Write the structure tokens for this entry.
Amino acid sequence: MFDDYEGFKKNILSLTGIDLNSYKERQMKRRIDTLANKLGFKDYDSYYKDLKMNADHRKQFMNYLTINVSEFYRNPGQWNTLRDDIIPNLLKSGNGELKIWSAACSTGDEPYTIVMMLKEHFPKVRFSLTATDLDDLVIAFAKEGNYSQKSVAGLPKEYLNKYFTKNSDGTYQISKEVISKVNFKQHNLLSDRYDMNYDLIVCRNVLIYFTEEAKLDIFKRYYQSLRPEGYLFIGSTEQIIQAKEIGYELQHSFFYKKKS
Ligand SMILES: C[S@@+](CC[C@H](N)C(=O)[O-])C[C@H]1O[C@@H](n2cnc3c(N)ncnc32)[C@H](O)[C@@H]1O
């Protein structure tokens, strides 16, 4: 066990802009200690000095602490609810166009799932889709659009056949047309500004890593960013305990509507 995690957190905040205080401490500290140990550091001080000097180690640190697991069409039932109920509701209550944010999008599996769903089931609907993540390595990966068999295993076959090409090494390349529909940006949910007037915000499987306080703050900020009757779509192990107080209405499991 390393000492002076408090000092390390302060140093990391000034070096990277990431406030480790907002992440669940035990889990995060364990991950950082494991990585520092693996690299042969005996204390936080020497690890921090190395991070300041070594850009590759800095990238590795960011990438390691931001758990990037994702896959296409993760939890199919929820995507079906989005398609059959939430999007039709949004089209009824809105201006016919959809403004969507996929927050903490990791390797792009989630925003690309949205694009394919809209193209297949709502071909006439115009939409803009911004996808953001803290980690610029996953954003670079997403823009390349080359995926393993495992990432695409849950996708309906018609999506796979229509929007991907299988490479000779067994990976799948998503079409340029789908890539072009997503505007990827680096963005820190804890410190950067949120855009306004979204119809739909999708933020799944990231808030589980944050403290209750940080989570509540983000749920409130999402509320401000949604238009009236817009929806927040969260992960399958998540819930908003203070939903009513903030002004959300639970419409389906994992879909919260901003009351008008
Ligand atoms: C487990 S992935 C979730 C990916 C996708 N939403 C899904 O459910 O399949 C968590 C993502 O959250 C990102 N992340 C962690 N802290 C963040 C922060 N402060 N701001 C924005 N993204 C963050 C990580 O880089 C990682 O890509």
Remarks:
- The CA atoms of residues 219 and 240 lie 8 Å apart.
- The chain has two domains: 5-65, 76-258.
- Residues 76-93 form the longest helix (18 residues).
- Residues 66-70, 74, 104-106, 109-110, 133-135, 138, 187-190, 204-206, 235 surround S-adenosylmethionine (CB under 6 Å).
